[in-house]
Structures are given as C-alpha cells and as structure tokens.
C-alpha cells in the first residue's frame, strides 16, 4: 500500500482528495491545524496530524511515497506580495527540500490555472501558454508561479508533477470558499453578473485528477484540471434552472467594475482590507477559458458536467445550513 502525505487536508479540494485516496486504497498522513476540522469519517488508513506548516514537518513525512501539497494562502485582501510568498513559495521550498533529502518519489504540487495564459471561445488556454494580465498582477497567482518555477528548476531526486485546477465547486466546501459564487445567485430576486467568464470544474474531478497524476503524471509536467468554459451569465442561469428560480438578471458594466477596482486600490493604499483591486475586477471582465485536452489524453480523466457540480454543491449547503451563515452573499 502506497503512503501519501497531504497538506491542506480540510479545505474543499483537500477533503475531496483524501476521500479519493482512501477509496483507491492509499494510506494517508494528513496535516491539519485541528483534527476536529476534518469533515470526513474516521478511517484506519487515515492519520490526522496537527501541525504548523511554517515549522519543520519533515519528520512527519519520512516514510511516504508521495507528498501532495495543497495548502496555500488564497485570500484576496492581503496587502503585499511577501504575505503570499511566505506561504505559497517559502513553505513549498522548505517542504520540497526535505522531500528531496528523504528521496520521496513524487512531489505533487497543486497550483492554479491562473499561472497559465487563458484564452477565449476561439482559442483556449493550455499548459504551455505564458501567464497573462490581470494575473501577472495577482500576488496569489504570482507566488504560485514562483513556486512552480522553483520546483521545475530544482528537481533531482524527487519527481515533480504540477496540477493547475480551474474554478472548483463541489461538496465539502465548509468555509465556504469558491462555493460563495453559488450564494451570489441562489435565492436572489435580482442577480448582478459580470460580463466575463471562467472555466468551472467539479472539485471531485479535480481530486480524481490529482490522485490519477500520482501514477500517470509525468515528471516536470503541468496538467490543467479544467472542464466547462462558461460566461457568468450562463453559469448563473444554470443555478437558476437547477434551483427552480427566475430572478431578474442585470449585467454589471465593465466601467463600473473598473471604477470599483480603482476604489479598492485606494483603500489598500490606506491599509484597509478589501477584495477589491484593479486586477481582481479586471478578472471578472475577461473570458478566462482553458482546455482540458492534456489531462484527458495523458491522465484519461473524465469530467462531470457543471450542472452536476452545482447540484452537489447546493445539496451540500442544504444539508449543512450552518455553513451558509459564513458567507457575505447571503
């Protein structure tokens, strides 16, 4: 039985990854801040270890065959690059250095699609496309790209496989994180939507891609875990149909989003935390579209529909109403 070490174990993706690993017969050591935050059931092949990623955690992974590093700083309201770099780069370097010394066979790094150049309906973004604005101005995306470059340029004893998920929705989004987009439209009489779009993928499929990449992923390669490219209008219409609602839908002018970004930049200069920024508002205006061809061909992945992803997410929130109160979109 192969032993796998996982960081970021209790988030949306981490929970789905561990469930997939256990279903496929792996033994898992999962690092968590608090054992009580684990949402899955107890399993004899799952060991939960409370640990701080900023400390020396190498001893916890001394006998693993693969490390899956999911933990990351994803908040959009931090003020400077160093706040992201500390978690998304320095911890990666530290963990990978110990993986190399311990001769761990594979280091699987979960990055983001935003380190890769996006496309549009006519030409989809793929793994070899260089990063594009506005993500070249995103501290989060930049810190992930810096970590990718380090791993690819310093691999010796340990193989490196990088996966780049697009926008994930699905069950076990306990914060919620990306699932907030469901609350943007669900149970609303009026929906204001940006004119751009993005690629959506079921979190369960992204998890399956990660588990499959342990065996089939090639050393030094990146894999977009992506599915359906949709405008925000199309995505919200799916939510309307699935949840049997018929709200008024109003497009947000790009100029207004740009104005909000300008206001956000000013607030940040005053050290006032906000998710608003020029780059974040620009991201809502573009068609942030990607291809999943490589993951389908190399990893033999099959993706579920976005409808299924929405259904599973909504069902999870209905069955876990306490989580709904944690979002500002209520």
From TrEMBL:
Pfam families: Epimerase (PF01370). InterPro entries: Epimerase_deHydtase, NAD(P)-bd_dom_sf, NAD(P)-dependent_oxidoreduct. Residues 6-224 form the NAD-dependent epimerase/dehydratase domain. One of its GO terms (molecular function) is aldehyde dehydrogenase (NAD+) activity. GO terms for cellular component: cytoplasm. This is Dihydroflavonol 4-reductase. It comes from Chryseobacterium culicis.
């Amino acid at each position: 039985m192969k032993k796998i070490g996982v960081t970021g174990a209790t988030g949306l993706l981490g929970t789905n990854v561990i469930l997939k690993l256990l279903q496929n017969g792996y033994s898992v050591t999962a690092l968590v801040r608090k054992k009580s935050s684990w949402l899955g059931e107890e399993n004899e092949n799952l060991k939960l270890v409370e640990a701080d990623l900023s400390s020396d955690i190498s001893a916890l992974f001394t006998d693993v065959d693969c490390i899956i590093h999911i933990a990351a700083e994803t908040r959009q309201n931090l003020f400077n690059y160093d706040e992201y770099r500390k978690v998304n780069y320095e911890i990666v370097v530290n963990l990978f250095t110990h993986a190399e010394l311990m001769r761990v066979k594979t280091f699987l790094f979960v990055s983001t699609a935003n380190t890769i150049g996006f496309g549009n309906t006519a030409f989809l973004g793929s793994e070899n496309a260089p990063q594009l604005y506005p993500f070249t101005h995103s501290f989060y995306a930049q810190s992930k790209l810096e970590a990718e470059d380090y791993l690819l340029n310093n691999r010796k004893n340990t193989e490196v496989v990088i996966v780049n998920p697009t926008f994930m929705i699905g069950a076990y989004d306990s914060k919620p994180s990306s699932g907030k987009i469901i609350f943007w439209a669900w149970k609303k009489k009026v929906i204001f939507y940006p004119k751009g779009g993005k690629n959506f993928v079921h979190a369960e499929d992204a998890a399956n891609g990660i588990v499959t990449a342990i065996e089939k992923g090639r050393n030094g390669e990146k894999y977009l875990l992506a599915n359906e490219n949709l405008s925000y209008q199309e995505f919200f219409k799916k939510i309307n149909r699935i949840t049997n609602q018929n709200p008024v839908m109003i497009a947000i002018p790009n100029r207004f989003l740009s104005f909000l970004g300008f206001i956000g930049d000013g607030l940040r200069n005053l050290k006032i935390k906000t998710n608003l920024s020029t780059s974040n508002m620009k991201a809502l205006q573009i068609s942030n579209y990607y291809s999943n061809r490589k993951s389908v061909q190399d990893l033999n992945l099959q993706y579920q529909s976005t409808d299924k992803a929405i259904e599973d997410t909504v069902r999870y929130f209905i069955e876990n109403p306490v989580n709904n109160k944690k979002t500002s979109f209520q």
